[in-house]
Each structure stands twice: as C-alpha cells, then as structure tokens.
Amino acid sequence: MELIKNIYNKIGRPINIMEVCGTHTVAIFKHGIRSLLPEGLKLLSGPGCPVCVTSIEDIDKVIAISMLDDVILCTFGDMMRVPGGKKSLSEAKAEGADIRIVYSPLDCLSIARVNINKKVVFFSAGFETTTPSVAGTLFEAERQKIDNFYIYSVNKLVPPAIEILLQSDEINIDGFILPGHVSTIIGIHPYKFIAEKYKRSGVITGFKAEDIITGIVMLLRQIAEGRAAVEIQYKSVVTEIGNQKAMDFINEFFETCDSYWRGIGMLPNSGLKLREKYRHRDAEAVFNIDLSDGVAEPKGCQCGLVLRGIKIPSECPLFGKACTPEKPVGACMVSTEGSCAAYYKYNLLS
Ligand code: SF4
C-alpha cells in the first residue's frame, strides 16, 4: 500500500480507476481494498454484472414466455428475483409458471429429453466467460437432435460497454481493472482500443487481494510515466490470444447484434444472437412476444448511474431503505455481483 501511495503522490491529481467486473467489485470489498487507498484514488464499479445489465424488456418477454402452457423456462438462480416491469421470475413461478433453476445450460438438455411435449427455454445471460458453455449446449442439442431446446440470448460483450464509458463526458476514467475471466476467452486484443484510441490504461487482473493490488500498481505506474497500454497481470491464466477454440465455438453459433444494456442504453454490436442457421432454437424469434404496454424502470432506482460509475450505490436515495437484498428495487441489489448488493453487504453491515 505504501507503493500505491508513493506513485499516487507522484501523479499528484485525483485518479479514477474502474473495475469492470462484478467479481472484482466483490473481491475489492471482501479484502477491504478501497479503505486502504489514498483519498483521491477512487475505485468505481462498472457494468460487469450480466444480471444487472439485462433489460427490463427482456425480463418481461422471458416471463411472458414462461407463462405459456407448453414451456419450461430454465435460468440461473440469480436471475429469479430481478424485478421486471410488473413482476420477477420468482413471482411468475409462484403464479404457476414452470421455471427451473439450473447450474449449467447442459442441465436443460436433460430436462428437454424427459419432457418431449414441452419447449425447454434457457434464459441465457452472461459475458464472454459463460457463452462457450451455451455454445457447447447448442452443439449437443444439434448432435443429439433435441428439437425442443431453445435459448433466449441476452449474452453480451464487455469491450463495447467499456468503449461507451470512454466516449461519455459524464465521468473521466483514467484506467480499467479489466476482467480476468472474460479475458481468458478473448485475450488482450479486443481491449487495445483503450490505449490506442482513448489513451487510457488497462490491466487484466486476477481476483486475489495481491492480484488486485498489483493491478492497481501497474495502472498507476502507467499513468505516472505518461504511458497508456493494456497489460496482463493475470498471466497465470490469461494469454495474449485468449482461447481460440472457445472463440471459434462461440462464432459457430452466434453473431454480434445491437443490444440494450439496462442503465446504459442500446450499444451497437454489444450482444450475441443466434446465427440464421440456428434461428430455429432462438426463443425470441420462435415465440415472438410483443409487449405492447411498454416497460419502465422502477421509480427512483439509480442503477443506470451506478452502472456507469457516476454514482456510488449509497448515493441512491432508496439504498438500504426501500431497496435491500431482501426486497430489491433494482437489479444491482439482486445479484451477488451487483454493486449495490456488494455495498450493502460489506459497507452497511460490516
Ligand atoms: Fe437501484 Fe436499489 Fe441500487 Fe438504488 S440501491 S440504484 S434502487 S438497485
């Protein structure tokens, strides 16, 4: 920590560093890293929680699909309590929808095999880390000719969200702690624009306390030396080129599309949809749900500002009062990787 203070003092101005990944946010709180940093060196939480950035419209469409008689909807557990426009998946389940929590997309294939008269839909949310397992499940569904398996894809890509933050004049971000897990798949090249186009720093960082502290030191060194580069701290796991096999697998089934990020907006080429060849498994296309009455963000929720690093969760007037993990108003309070949930768990209660 002395080293961080020395380099920071050399820089001599306030510095904003954003951790993009929700797992980093939780690790930073767990290890009490924020409280050890010099005043003026701020760690901001970014949009790296896939549950938090899933749009209300997508949640409402998936709920509508789950209410159909011949559908079994499968989802990861942290999506269950995210509030939609009118209800959550948990509430839809209480009303009779057949919604099942799975631990892997492959579990859906076992469910589809024994429920041949039902359509089994996987609500697929996640970044580059989880998409290969969804592609693997699609591969198996094709290979085993399991025709009653579909996915509703809200899979997203991390680099386009970083670029939008860099284009914004709402906040200045000097450097990014880049996600270790996502980078095992995509490698370093998709982040190069951070340094080359925007002259900012980035370090792909691991999740232990010493990894994060080293990542911060590497970022500060770049800034102190007037350099902008994207570097790898997490070298034991992340390589320059990433996992080409996993990327090929993703590219076989998915293509990029514009995607709506809750709190941020529509980002070009930031999502993944099934390629035309596999469109028969695309739940959005197959069920074609029309939400004519529109969707609205929960009143007073400031998840958008939190996800863009403009406000910290405790600055939201609902934080810890109307909005708690037991009774969440916004998505950032639901997922364990959400900034508001992390602030609540580690700040307010400890
Ligand atoms: Fe949204 Fe709750 Fe976070 Fe406020 S505290 S920004 S209402 S999730």
Automatic annotation (TrEMBL):
GO biological processes: protein maturation
A single MF term (Gene Ontology): carbon monoxide binding
UniProt xrefs under Pfam families: HypD (PF01924)
Entry superkingdom: Bacteria
InterPro entries: Hyd_form_HypD, HypD_1, HypD_2_sf
Assigned keywords, A-Z: Iron, Metal-binding
Gene3D superfamilies, alphabetized: 6.10.20.100, HypD, alpha/beta domain 2
Family listed: Belongs to the HypD family.
Name of the protein this chain belongs to: Hydrogenase formation protein HypD
Organism: Dissulfurispira thermophila
Gene, per the UniProt record: hypD
